[in-house]
Every structure is written in C-alpha cells, then in structure tokens.
Amino acid sequence: MKPFRQTKTGFTIIEVLLAIGIFSMIILAIYSIWTTIIKASIACRTAADNAQRARVSMRALEDALITAQMFTANMPPQNPDAYYSFIADTSGDYGSLSFVARLPATFPGVGRFGDHLVRRVTFTIEPDPTKGLNLVMRQAPVMYASNPDYEPYSLVLAKDVTTFGFEFWGPRDPIRNPQALEWIDEWKSTNSLPRYVRIWLGMGKTEQRGQAQDFIARIIALPANAVAPDWQMPGLMGGGIPPGGRLPPGRMQPGGGLPPGGGGRVPPGAGVRLQ
Questions:
Q1: pLDDT digits (tens, 9 = 90+) for 29-45
Q2: What whole-number distance in Å separates Cα of residue 135 and Cα of residue 251?
Q3: Which tens digit of pLDDT belongs to each residue from 124-179?
Q4: What does the alpha-carbon distance between residue 8 and residue 3 come to, in Å, rounded to a whole number?
C-alpha cells in the first residue's frame, strides 16, 4: 500500500490583497456612479423647481398688475402712505413694488381674506435665513394695510434670487414734456399708474459671475387708469357727472331734470352737477 499524502491548498497573502483591492475598486466605482446619479437628480429637480417658481412668481406679478386699482380722491399726492398709492422703489440693488389691486380668485393666499378682494400687495427681496435671497410677497386688505399693528400675510415666491427689477413706460418729465414716453427706471408719481411695466427676475447662480440659471422677463400692460374724483364721488368733489354718464336713482339735475327721451343718460357736452 502507498502511503497517504495530505496536501494543503489556499491563497497567499498577495492574492488575498489583490482580490480585496479589485473588490474595493468595484465598490468605489459603483458608489461614484450612484453619487453622480443622485447629484444629477438633485440638480435637475432644483432647476425644475426654480423654473416653476419663476413662472409662478411672474404669474403672480402679472395677475396683480393687470388688476391694479387707483382712486385719486383717497390718495393725496403729499401722502405716499395713503390707501391707493403706487410705490416703486428702485434705489437699491433690488427693486420693491407695492400697490393696491382687485386680486382674482386664483391668486395665492386668496382664501385667507374672504370677501376682501381689494388688497395691497407688496413684492420685496429679503435675505433667506440660511443663504441667498428670496422674493417675498405680502398682502393685506386695503383698509388694514396702513395699520402698523396688522400683520400681513407673507409668502416666499422665489428662492435664490440673483436679480429683480422693473422699468415703467411713461414720461421722464411729466410736467414739461408729458407726451415724451420712454422706458424709465423710477416711478415718482405715486398718484397714477404707468401704462406698461417691464419686469425681470433671475434665479440660481451659474459658474459665470453675474448670470442666473433661470431668467424671465415680461412686459405687462396695465388696463386701468386712476379713477378721477368726479367719477368716484359725483357731486361731492365739486364736479358732476362726466359726459355720457348716468345719474344715480332719485337724483335730478338742477332746474328741470334730464332732457326728454334721455333715458337717464347725460348727453355728451352737458356737464350735470348733482344736488
């Protein structure tokens, strides 16, 4: 009989280290690919959120501007804090805008105010508690907005804002040359509304300094004009009914009423003063 020979097989230390190194490289490659996917997903989601916030912010600005209200009888020119003042501040790096509007039912935060449709809305740029700048919108009923003890409802429309400004289409010198219309960077007449407002908003930072990832600009036409005192309170402001207007029920013009067949309407050219 041949003697039994016991053989021992195994891995050397070099083979074990080589196998561990290859396995570590595979794990590192998988981790690197996974982290790249996660970072790309976060960047895409952030870009989509910023683009959506920019659209929502511009839509809120447009909805507010196209429903702007102005009543000159309640807006003394010497009092910029009166009810219906149109205040635009472009003195700093970022602008701020404050005015009164009859906001639509789809406007953000409308459910908090019930029947108070006419509200003062303000758009400002404020620092974020963590980093960056935010576009903040505040709104309050028009009769409460001038009360310093009333806390308006605030909502952050956009984050990481890099630029926010506006220009107005109007006369640069309304007294000397009111017909020369152009784009101006400030609106001093708080007792009137501009015809057009050009607004731009930039969000997110790029590698190139001073440029935004998402930039949106829009020209908004204001379809409203300031309501004159004679239209606002006929007969009480020293005026009368404008040509083509109607007399309220129970009111007659002095000395004879309306012309026959007038149907309650004042003919053009006939200034009728209420009693």
A1: 999 999 999 988 888 88
A2: 50
A3: 999 988 888 999 999 988 878 777 788 888 899 888 888 898 899 888 877 787 78
A4: 16
SS (H, E, C) the chain: CCCCCCCCCCCCHHHHHHHHHHHHHHHHHHHHHHHHHHHHHHHHHHHHHHHHHHHHHHHHHHHHHCCECCEHHHCCCCCCCCCCCCEEECCCCCCEEEEEEECCCCCCCHHHCCCCCEEEEEEEEEECCCCCEEEEEEEEECCCCCCCCCCCEEEEEEECEEEEEEEEEEECCCCCCCCCEEEECCCCCCCCCCCEEEEEEEEEECCCCCCEEEEEEEEEECCCCCECHHHHCCCCCCCCECCCCECCCCCCCCCCCCCCCCCCECCCCCCECCC
Residue the block writes with tokens 């004159």:
228
Q: Which residue do the tokens 């600005």 mark? A: 61
Predicted local distance difference test score (pLDDT) of residue 232: 58
39 CB-contact burial (10 Å; exposed 0-12 / middle 13-18 / buried 19+): exposed
Q: What are the residue ranges in the chain where pLDDT is below 70?
A: 1-9, 73-82, 205-213, 224-226, 228-275
The four Cα atoms 246, 251, 256, 261 give a dihedral, to 10 degrees, of: 40
What is the pLDDT, as a whole number, of residue 197? 92
Cβ contacts of 168 within 8 Å, gap of 6 or more: 88, 183, 184, 185, 186, 187, 194, 196, 197, 198
